[in-house]
Amino acid sequence: MKLSMKKFGELLISRPAGRDSSLAALAYLLSPPPPPEETIELDFEGVKVLTPSWLDEFLNGLKGTLANPIQVLPSLNSTVKESCKAIE
Fold first, then answer.
1. 57-76 as b/e, with b when 16 or more CB fall inside 10 Å?
2. Are 73 and 44 in contact (CB under 8 A)?
3. Domain residues for 37?
């Protein structure tokens, strides 16, 4: 299942916004939950800025509820690349 992260905005920059976005994703985009073996792909195309704090909060919100593997799709955006490195 692919999630377009642009649905949450072009500037994904704060921890509270990341938490709100994860709750919205769980309530609306991932309801009902996909089967546990299905990978959730995060597509950041169209996002201009992503910070590690937003990404950390978003991922923790999903991982706390879902058992699915989560994959960030490759991106040319340097803030996406660096935020992913920081979270690892």
1. bbbebbeeebebeeebeebe
2. yes
3. 2-87
Give 40-61 as a DSSP string: EEEE-TT--EE-HHHHHHHHHH
Domain count for the chain, please give it: 1
Query: CB-side exposure of 52: number of CA atoms within 13 Å?
Result: 8
pLDDT in tens, 67-86: 999 999 999 999 999 999 99
Count the Cβ atoms, other than its own, within 10 Å of residue 81.
Answer: 15
Distance in angstroms (rounded) separating the CA atoms of residues 21 and 58: 7
Residue pointed to by tokens 């920081």? 86
Mean pLDDT of the chain: 96
Predicted confidence at residue 41, as pLDDT, reads 97
Q: What's the predicted TM-score (pTM) here?
A: 0.94
- Compute the distance between CA of residue 43 and CA of residue 17 in angstroms, rounded to an integer: 17
